[in-house]
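Q: I'm building a small set of examples for a reading group on sequence design. Run inverse folding on the following structure and report the sequence directly after it, with nothing in between.
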């Protein structure tokens, strides 16, 4: 296993992003369509927030009703992405080592790190990316 491998070697570069003006129903569609759990919220090419699928679950009452789609639509219309997203996003650079990214995620309550160089979103690395990397090493 290489000690100094940068996250740029394994990060997701084809980023699915949201704007704060997008709605939560659209966000849920992206989560489901792309089978992802984290979406950076951007203004231009800069990260201004992060929305996770678990953020949607926190505001959804889908588990307590028979018709999930109706309740989700009502609840999602009560909130904006800006209200639900995490605003103080921890980011890393593309040169951050995989070891350092792993350490940061292990010590945090979140499971994804936007990769940002010079204020521009370049990719995203998740705990799943790291687990897949480590599995490939064996």
């Amino acid at each position: 296993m290489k000690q100094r491998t940068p996250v740029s070697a394994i990060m997701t570069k084809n980023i699915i992003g949201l704007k704060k003006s997008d709605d939560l129903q659209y966000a849920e569609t992206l989560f489901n369509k792309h089978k992802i759990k984290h979406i950076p919220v951007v203004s231009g090419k800069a990260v201004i927030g992060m929305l996770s699928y678990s953020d949607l679950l926190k505001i959804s009452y889908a588990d307590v009703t028979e018709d999930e789609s109706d309740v989700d639509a009502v609840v999602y219309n009560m909130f904006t992405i800006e209200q639900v997203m995490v605003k103080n996003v921890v980011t890393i650079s593309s040169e951050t080592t995989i070891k350092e990214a792993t350490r940061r995620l292990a010590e945090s309550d979140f499971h994804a790190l936007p990769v940002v160089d010079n204020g521009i979103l370049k990719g995203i690395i998740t705990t799943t990316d790291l687990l897949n990397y480590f599995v490939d090493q064996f």
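The mean pLDDT is 89.
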